[in-house]
Design a protein that fits this description.
289 residues, mainly alpha
């Protein structure tokens, strides 16, 4: 449940910030009458996300066991790829998101109403589709449709409240740090989803090694115990993973976490390079800097 709360909170907050920036910019630039197309695009994006989630749920219910496992495993791998891309994209652009969105909105205003709908639709729709896919794979992994869905809905509700507070100016936090630490937690959650996706593909006979267990601590951590349920809900922990699952988990989480937490190098502008060269020349000649 925590993992789905986190994905709902993070994806929802991204969407909420996008909407807040678009709305605030239109209001401040005297384009309040152009808000209707923006909200229309947001509504279409939400409807598409809900339809996509319903298609995944009801479409997969008619499949055979092997086909369902193959679909679940494939979509788990895809959702992990999308979430990984998302956390790195937000890590890189969090500081410049406002300027980027305002530039797109200026271009959309110049084109017309349809462009405003499309801009808001794509800005919000991406997060909605990612959320639907990730929550669906989590539901398949836990075999419990209530808690993952409840966690995601709570996260989305919290993100909506935070977005409103941002818009009202009542809440100011360092978004770069927020997305950095929630992104690090999501990498761990995504690793668990990836491992479970590998297990699904093994059960579908797409991958070998279903009977080769890395370890089995089911007696120590029973899956039906409160702590076993907690570990499964947060990290998709499995007490009897296969060797391939453990290998893929480690191969994913170690390099991805290392790259994600590595310090970002700030691009140097020509002016900063000139200042550095001047300082070096001064040091070489003994002149004061």
């Amino acid at each position: 449940m925590f993992g789905n709360f986190l994905i709902g909170l993070r994806e929802g907050l991204e969407a909420s910030l996008v909407v807040c920036i678009l709305v605030a910019y239109l209001v401040k630039t005297g384009n309040r009458r152009r808000l209707a197309p923006v909200w229309a695009g947001v509504g279409l994006a939400v409807a598409l996300s809900l339809a996509f989630g319903a298609l995944l749920q009801f479409g997969s219910s008619t499949l055979t066991f092997q086909a369902k496992e193959a679909l679940g495993g494939t979509l788990s791998v895809l959702s992990v790829a999308l979430v990984t891309w998302m956390v790195f994209w937000m890590r890189r652009t969090a500081r410049h998101l406002k300027g980027e969105l305002q530039g797109r909105l200026d271009a959309a205003l110049a084109v017309g109403t349809g462009a405003l709908v499309v801009t808001s639709f794509f800005a919000v729709g991406r997060e909605g589709l990612e959320t639907s896919l990730f929550v669906w794979t989590a539901v398949q992994a836990t075999d419990d449709g209530i808690r993952p869905l409840a966690g995601a809905l709570l996260g989305l509700a919290a993100s909506a409240v935070l977005g409103l507070l941002f818009y009202k100016g009542a809440l100011r936090i360092d978004l770069a740090k927020f997305f950095r630490w929630t992104g690090a937690m999501l990498v761990v959650v995504a690793a668990g989803v990836l491992a479970y996706g590998i297990h699904d593909l093994q059960e579908a006979d797409f991958l070998p090694g279903l009977r080769r267990l890395a370890f089995d601590i089911s007696a120590t951590v029973p899956p039906d115990s409160w702590y076993g349920t907690l570990l499964k809900g947060v990290f998709n922990f499995q007490p009897d993973p296969t060797v391939l699952q453990v290998t893929v988990w480690a191969v994913y989480v170690v390099p991805v976490m290392g790259l994600f937490l590595a310090p970002q190098r700030t691009p140097r502008t020509p002016a900063s390079r000139k200042e550095t060269e001047t300082a070096r020349a001064d040091r070489a000649t003994g002149a004061p800097s």
